[in-house]
From TrEMBL:
This is Methylamine utilization protein. It comes from Marinobacter algicola DG893. Residues 196-221 are annotated as: Disordered. Keywords: Signal. InterPro entries: Cupredoxin (IPR008972), MauL (IPR034242). The lineage of its organism: Bacteria, Pseudomonadati, Pseudomonadota, Gammaproteobacteria, Pseudomonadales. Coiled coil: none annotated. Residues 196-205 have a biased composition (Low complexity). Residues 1-19 form the signal peptide.
Length: 221
């Protein structure tokens, strides 16, 4: 059972044509606790258009991962080049992909293949503050919300008439209460003119936070 508190409101006032054309729906995402807009959240349409696997990188530079969040199709290969003058130890315990690249400088021997969808949380055993996320998807992302928490989602027509009466939307943000998985919303037909979604966010982290959960799990091994 997903632990995140989510709410879906279908705004009244009409609906878009439920025919063969792509449905374009404005979306508004807010924090359920504060009511403030949630910026830079990733939105993915379930069973949407797919993408071919890619070759990607998460670079370690200035003792941080770049980018902090990487979105890739399933079966993509990711390299972890170290551009710092110190060694790093990159690892993940995530069910979508557990791996361990022990102390190294330069470039690892082989990229990591991500062959399962989900959220992969990445850390460095040497530098506790370092954290990144990889979202492995079956569908191309619809995009990210802007500073006002807004995004226009395009829902293409179904491939067949038996595809059902509901569409799933996946939403992810690094400050979700449980950021190890994506929040799922269901949008029913006929599609609404607009959507308001809310998710529960954790407070903004501070520089003096204690050792995070990922590091604590590593220390317990």
């Amino acid at each position: 059972m997903y632990k995140l508190t989510v709410t879906l409101f279908l705004l009244l006032g009409g609906s878009l044509c439920d025919g063969a054309e792509t449905n374009t729906i404005p979306l508004q995402l807010t924090d359920s606790l504060s009511g403030t807009p949630v910026a830079n959240a990733v939105v993915i349409l379930e069973n949407g258009p797919s993408e071919s696997p890619v070759e990607a990188e998460i670079v370690q530079k200035n003792r941080n991962f770049h980018p902090h969040t990487l979105i890739i199709p399933k079966y993509s290969r990711v390299d972890f080049p170290n551009q710092d003058n110190t060694q790093h130890h990159v690892y993940s315990f995530s069910p979508a992909k557990a791996f361990n690249i022990e102390l190294y400088a330069g470039r690892p021997t082989e990229p990591v293949v991500f062959d399962k969808t989900g959220v992969v949380e990445i850390g460095c055993n040497i530098h506790d503050h370092m954290q990144a996320f990889i979202l492995v998807t079956d569908s191309a992302p619809s995009g990210r919300t802007d500073e006002q928490g807004r995004l226009t989602v395009e829902i293409p027509p179904p491939a067949d008439s038996d595809s059902g009466t509901q569409t799933g939307l996946l939403v992810w943000h690094p400050r979700l209460t449980d950021n190890t998985r994506m929040a799922r919303f269901t949008v029913g037909k006929p599609y609404p003119e607009s959507l308001e979604l809310s998710v529960e966010l954790s407070p903004e982290p501070t520089s003096d936070d204690p050792l995070d959960g990922l590091q604590e799990r590593f220390r317990e091994l």
